[in-house]
């Protein structure tokens, strides 16, 4: 199947998948109780609460409530966020931008460091760089994210004061225009080195913590793929042609080893979004994770629905991009399904 046909087919299926996800999540959230609590106040009488339920159709069966919610979604209305005291559509843009900035920075660290360490470990199999990379990957895969975050927070924030909490210094943040909502990117677009350095100081620690686990998995996968690729006949043939070893590794072994690693990278991005919940709480990062945590504790079901739909959409989009990249890297792959 051609890439164009595959993309059209997957994009055509996307609305139906999102519809199925929304039905399941909406039903599950209603099993946890009525969302009227997020709209009511302690001083309301039972009659006033009943009137509130009638106003938002919360006294109707779940299918009727879902159709009302779906109608609002098609009109661009995702409901009222009780934790933000504002419509969901007014808040969610800044939350998505903050979390995407953190996830992309963590993903960049994980991919660049993971591929480099995995390549070195695979080429120098059973030598000290290989042993070091394997130890590093085991450490990264087994260390809880929140604990690793605290380990970095104590020396670099409390003792040295190099990296502050939060996402920005308010005075510097308000001094530039925000075209994308991503602070570091907006600082570049504004040509402000002060804002860019401020963005980096706030971004470095949470990005390292979030990317550490994903980096360990990529190292492991890249190392195994490199070991297998280095023993293939086409690598011996490249050497027999007299190519320098660095070209053999870069053009032949690493390119082929990168094919299975691509799938792991795509899956890792989805886990980065999930891991952002703990990291955002530790570092006070005002993104989707911190937002949905407050929503869960408060029973804010409109916010929970928006979070699940957004993360499902991002996860499917990333996996679609990975499938296309996989076919590009390995021409033998036939897209389908």
UniProtKB/TrEMBL annotation:
It is a multi-pass membrane protein. Keywords: Cell membrane, Membrane, Transmembrane, Transmembrane helix, Transport. InterPro entries: BPD_transp_1_N, MetI-like, MetI-like_sf. It is found in: Cell membrane. It comes from the Bacteria. GO terms for cellular component: plasma membrane. Residues 96-326 form the ABC transmembrane type-1 domain. SUPFAM superfamilies: MetI-like. The chain crosses the membrane at residues 12-31, 102-123, 135-160, 203-222, 257-284, 304-329. Pfam families: BPD_transp_1, BPD_transp_1_N. GO terms for biological process: transmembrane transport. PANTHER family: DIPEPTIDE TRANSPORT SYSTEM PERMEASE PROTEIN DPPB-RELATED. Belongs to the binding-protein-dependent transport system permease family. This is Peptide/nickel ABC permease. It comes from Pontimonas salivibrio.
């Amino acid at each position: 199947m051609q890439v164009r046909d595959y993309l059209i087919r997957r994009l055509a299926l996307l609305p139906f998948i999102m519809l199925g996800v929304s039905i399941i999540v909406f039903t599950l959230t209603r099993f946890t109780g009525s969302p009227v609590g997020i709209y009511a106040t302690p001083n309301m009488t039972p009659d006033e609460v009943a009137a509130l339920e009638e106003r938002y159709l919360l006294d109707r069966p779940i299918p009727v409530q879902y159709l009302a919610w779906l109608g609002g979604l098609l009109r661009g209305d995702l409901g009222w966020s009780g934790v933000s005291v504002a419509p969901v559509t007014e808040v969610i843009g800044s939350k998505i931008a903050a979390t995407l900035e953190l996830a992309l920075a963590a993903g960049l660290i994980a991919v660049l460091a993971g591929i480099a360490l995995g390549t070195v470990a695979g080429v120098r199999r059973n030598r000290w760089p290989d042993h070091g990379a394997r130890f590093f990957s085991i450490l990264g895969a087994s260390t809880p994210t929140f604990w690793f975050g605290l380990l970095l927070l104590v020396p670099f924030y409390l003792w040295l004061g190099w990296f502050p909490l939060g996402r920005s210094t308010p005075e510097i943040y308000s001094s530039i225009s925000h075209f994308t909502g991503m602070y570091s990117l907006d600082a570049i677009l504004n040509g402000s080195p002060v804002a860019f350095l401020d963005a980096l100081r706030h971004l470095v620690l949470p990005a390292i913590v979030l990317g550490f686990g994903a980096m360990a998995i990529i190292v492991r996968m890249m190392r195994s793929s490199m070991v297998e690729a280095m023993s293939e006949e086409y690598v011996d043939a490249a050497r027999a042609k007299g190519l320098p070893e660095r070209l053999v590794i870069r053009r032949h072994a690493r390119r082929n080893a990168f094919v299975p690693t691509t799938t792991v990278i795509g899956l890792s991005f989805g886990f980065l979004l999930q891991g952002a919940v703990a990291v955002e709480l530790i570092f006070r990062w005002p993104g989707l994770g911190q937002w949905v945590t407050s929503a869960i504790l408060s029973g804010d079901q409109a916010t929970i629905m928006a979070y699940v739909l957004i993360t499902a959409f991002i996860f499917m989009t990333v996996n679609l991009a990975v499938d296309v990249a996989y076919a590009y890297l390995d021409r033998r792959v036939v897209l389908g399904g």
